[in-house]
Amino acid sequence: ERGVLFDVGHGQGSFAWRIAERALAQGFPPDTISSDLHAYNVAGPVYDQATTVSKFLTLGMSLDAAIACTTTAAAAAIGQAERLGTLRVGAAGDLAIWQLETGRFPLTDTHRETRYGEQRLVPRWVVLGGAIVAGE
Q1: Residue 67 contacts by C-beta under 8 Å, 6 or more apart in sequence?
Q2: Is the pTM of the predicted complex or chain greater than 0.90?
Q3: Which 3 state secondary structure label does DSSP give 106?
Q4: CA distance 63 to 46
Q5: Domain range annotation of the chain
Q6: What is d(CA 20, CA 4) in angstroms, rounded to the nearest whole number?
Q7: Contact 55/20 with Cβ under 8 angstroms?
Q8: How far is CA 38 from the centre of its chain?
Q9: Among candidates 51, 65, 32, 57, which has minimal Cα distance to 108?
Q10: Which of 5, 40, 79, 121 is most buried by its number of CB atoms within 10 A?
C-alpha cells in the first residue's frame, strides 16, 4: 500500500519460527523470500535458498505462494519482472531446479529452535543462460 515490501532475508540472526508464525497467522506473509547466505551460515541455519523456502512450507504457506515469493515477486521487487523470475520467451534463462521431497525433515531457526517439516525443496540443477552449469 505504501510501497514497503517485507523480505525474509534469512541470515545468521534474522529468522525466528515464532515471529514468522505469528506474522502469517495475522495475515502478514512476506512479500519476498530470500536468504542472507554467507560463509558463517551456509553450514546452518540457512544452508541454502531451498531450505529457506522449505521453512515457509513448514509454516503452512502453499508451494505456489512460496515459489512466487522467491521468483516472480523477488524479480518485481527489484524492477526486473520482465527479465528475471520468469520462464517467458526472451527472459534470462536462469533457473534453479528443485525437487520437492516428502518425509520428516529438521529445520532450525536462528534461535536454535528446530521444527520438522513434511516437505522440503532440494536443489538439483542450476541453469544459467539456458545451459546447465551445476547439478546431478
Answers
A1: 53
A2: yes
A3: strand
A4: 19
A5: 17-85+106-117
A6: 18
A7: yes
A8: 15
A9: 51
A10: 121
Residue among 92, 76, 69 at smallest CA distance from 9: 69
CA distance 24 to 89: 34
The string of DSSP codes covering 61-124 is --HHHHHHHHTHHHHHHTT-TTTSS---TTS---EEEEEEEEEEEEEE-TTS-EEEEEEEEEEE
Cβ-contact 31, 74 below 8 angstroms: no
Tens place of pLDDT per residue across the chain (136 aa): 678 999 999 988 889 999 999 999 999 999 999 998 888 888 889 999 999 999 999 999 999 999 999 999 999 999 999 989 988 888 888 999 999 999 999 999 999 999 999 999 999 999 998 899 988 7
